[in-house]
Structure formats: C-alpha cells, structure tokens
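Protocol step 4 of 5: obtain the predicted structure for the target chain.
Materials: sequence only (see below). No template structures provided, no constraints applied. The aim of this step is simply to have a reference model before the mutagenesis design in step 5. Sequence pasted as it appears in the construct record:
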Amino acid sequence: MSIDVELPNGWININLFDLCTPKQWKTVATKDLKQVGYPVYGANGQIGFYDEYTHEKPTLMITCRGASCGNIHLSVPFSYINGNAMALDQLAENACDIKYLEYFLRNTDFSNIISGSAQPQITQVNLKRISVRLAPINEQNRIVEKLDELFSELDAGVNELKAAQIKLKHYRQSLLKSAVEGVLTEKWRDDNKRQIEETGEELLKRILVERKQCWELQQLAEFKEKGKTPSKNWQAKYPEPVQPDTTDLPALPEGWVWATIDQLAINKRYGSSSKTNDDASGVPVLRMGNIQDGKLDYDNLKYLPEDHKEFPELLLNDGDLLFNRTNSAELVGKTAVYRDIGKSVSYASYLISVTFSEHFLPEIAAHYINSVLGKKWIAEVMNQTAGQANVNGTKLGALAIPLPPILEQKVLIEEVSNEFESIDLQIKATALGLKQSEAQRKNILKSAFSGELVPQDENDEPASVLLEKIKKEREELAKQAKPKRNRQAKKKVDVMSTLLEVLTVEDRWIDAQEAFKKCGIVDGTSIDRVEEIYTELRKLEKSGQIEIERNGSYDQIRLIKQEVKED
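Step 4 output (structure tokens):
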C-alpha cells in the first residue's frame, strides 16, 4: 500500500518488509501461563508469563486476528506470543528507530488489508502492502523525542479521565446502596414524619389484599371464558406468595418493611424463545444485551411479527421490571425497568418480566438488585452449569427487598434519578474528553509523519542513504545459517453448526467450553450466536438428550445414547 502524498525533504517511502521481518513464535496454552517469569504476548498486549526465555530484544507486535486486528504494541524481552499476534522481527536498526516505526504503524490505517468478516485477520501477504514514510535517522530521533513528550502529557490527562470514570462507577454503586438502605432519604424522613399516613407494613397488607382480589378476578374471568361454574372453595386454591426470610437481613428504617418480589408482584413471566428476525416493521424484542448499566438500550434490536402467537401475553407493560436470568456469572441478574416508548415491545427467553402492584414503584426493586446488596444475593443463589449462570423465577420471587411508604418511595426515586442524571452527564463529559484525546493523538501523529512536528535540518543525512545500510544489513542476515525446523502438521479444527453435532462426533465427556468453542463461540462472537447455542443446550438438557457433570471447577457434557428398541 503506497502513500501518494508529497514527502518532506530527505524522506523516502520504503516497504515495511525492507525494515523488518514478520514472524510468529510458537504459542503457549493459556492454562499453562505463570504468575511470574518472562512475558507472553497476545492480541492486546501482555497476557501472562512463562518460564522460558526466547527473545532478548524489544519487538513490535501487531494483532493479526480478531476484533483487535491492527493493534500495535512494543514488547520487552519476552517468552512467547499467542496465535493472534505477529512479531515484526529483525528491525533494520541502523536505518529505523523501533519507536519511530511503532508510532508510524499506530498512525496507519490497516482496514484495507484486513480480510474476513466473521474472523478478521491480517496475513503476511497483505501486510507486505504497507509502505513506511522513512525520515532521516536524526529526524526520526527528534520526532520520537517530541512524540514521547507530547504523549506523556496526553496520557496523564487520559489517566485522569479514566480514574474519573471509575470514581463515577463507584459513586453510582454507593448511591444505590444508600438509597435502598434508607440513608439517602433519612433527612427527608425526619422532616416529614407527620406526612406519612401509611407505613410500609400497612402498605404491604393493602397490596396483599389487592393481590388476592386480582387473582380472584382472573380466575372468575377464566371460568366465564370456559363456560364453567366456579367450583366449591375455589378461593382456597389461591397461591400464597413467599414470605420474606429476614433471619440475616439488616434492620430497616422506621416505617419500612421487608417484602418479597412475589408479595409485590401481580404477574411474573419468562420471555419468548421464538426465533427473531431483522424486520424492523415487527415488534422489537429486548434481549439480555439490551440491559446496560440499569437502563434499556434500544440499539441492536431483533423483531417478531406483529401477529406472533405469543402476543399480547408477552408484550411489556409500562413499569415492568426486566431481570436477566441467564448470562455469565458476572452479568447474570442485570435489571432495568421498561417504560412505555409508544409502541409494543416484547422480550426474549433469557429475561423475566415482573408486573408489580400499582402501589409499588418498580425502580425500588431494580435499584436493590443492581446494588452491591443485590449482587451479593445473586452470587449466593445462582446456579452455574456449562459455563452459564442462572437465577430462575422462583428464586427471584423469594428475593426480599425493602418497601418504604409510598410517599417516601417517590422521593427516593426522584433523588436517585436526579443524581443519576448528574452522573450520566459527567460520564458523557469524560467519554467526550477521551474521544477528544484520541483525536488529538491522531492529529499529532499525522503532523509527525507529514514532517510538520519538528524542525528539519538540511545537514541531516537523507533517508535515501539509509537504503544502502539496509541492503548491507539484509545481506549479513542472509549469510547467517538458518536452523532447520521440523514442522508438524497442523490439526484442523472444524467449526460445527450445532451443539448436538459436536456431541455426536465427540461421543465422550467433553469440557463445556471446549464444546462451545467447536461451535464457534469465542471472544467477539455475536450475542445472537451465543444465545442460539445456550438455547440449544437448555433444550437438549430439558429433553434428556444430554447429561451435565461438574468436574472440579469445570462442567462436562455428553450425549446420552438412546437404546434401540427391538420390534
């Protein structure tokens, strides 16, 4: 890939491979990485250590596979590189400063040489198309010195912005905790005791009465629809909600009471497992990826037809709480409240919707579940199977949350909302600052490699003279004997379309993560594909076609062989 813009005086265009040699070292398995030793590098920099020392010089690394394709980092003496990174070895040291080349490649657009969509990659053939704008060696040194100075200042500012982001995240959690513990509204409570006409305990009793009345009306409607007369003592079949277990729960502020989700809920439903599509004329279907930081993100939506058979039962009501029941252990339990957006919206099977009594604000429940208290509860009750964590509807229903008087609920939610609005503005400001810093970095690099960052010196030896030095260095390297290496045939790994296909071929106990990998589930795999495989796993387990067994810290799965019945 050539650069057609006019070069500064004394500069030349030179092919990347005339300056260095691409090389991929043998890899070391992630499970074999050490806590100490020599660094091992991967797609995004250092990933661990190993006890073998293979390369003594700092070396440029370029990510050659995956979402980070084209990332550049400079190594210290290292041990191994994993298969997603390529080293640019044997730099022509007398002609090109390694940091100059690092900065130049950071300023290079690799998009034109990246191939593949499902698994982006940069091949050595394509990398050969890169040309380097090579300055005289003295000017290279001045450019590197100036870039180091400017980027040191820029990095300090970036670090401050990132530290601010972390502080805002911690403040958000602190705010949620103080809200659901009653600390946030403590002063309001002291100043407004006389305005509270109904305590949380009295409110709960009223909600429970209305909950039962609502159930009875639903039952009578069903009897009428089926043309049946209510049976004797049919009210006795009312399913009493789970009572809160307050054994280890802390004391609540005066006027508050513990109540379970079941006690406060009118309805609790699992979402649809039907296959969605990209037809935006249909009904949007919220999925686990649409819950972000306690809010609903309406980007990356999927859809179901408006006449879908599960509608209107699986259409969301204004104020429904959405709980992510299945995900990784770190993300399971993400919660947000749906507010009417002016059109019908549904939700997928890995979410549970909860419709609450009109006398309870669902944001209280969402704030509790998203707080450190809720995360602690999730960690205690979740089940982990085959690489995924789950908190089912029964456990969610038994969760005890604080119930303040209705007037205090409104004040609490308003105060949290106001603080969240302020936090969100600060988060946007820091994100903008980081974006501007990155733009400034790019402008500085562009200026550097246009010959505008540092003054030029007419006494500098032109870069064209370096070509001879590079030629001689290449000739010396060519004379060095190259050790022969015994190449082993690479084992081909086939990606299969279904989990059932993998288990049928393997016909043995197999680590769940290994089975997922054989289905193409790796870092960067789309949410759609991950959900597809998890859905298949659940169906196979439910139908009794597979069995799952815990082996140490890992789950293993295998296909259950079906006996052939004789006629």
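Step 4 remarks: Residues 487-493, 563-567 have pLDDT under 50 and may be disordered. The domain at 12-136+461-479 is CATH 3.90.220.20 (Adenine-n6-DNA-methyltransferase TaqI; Chain A, domain 2).
Proceed to step 5.
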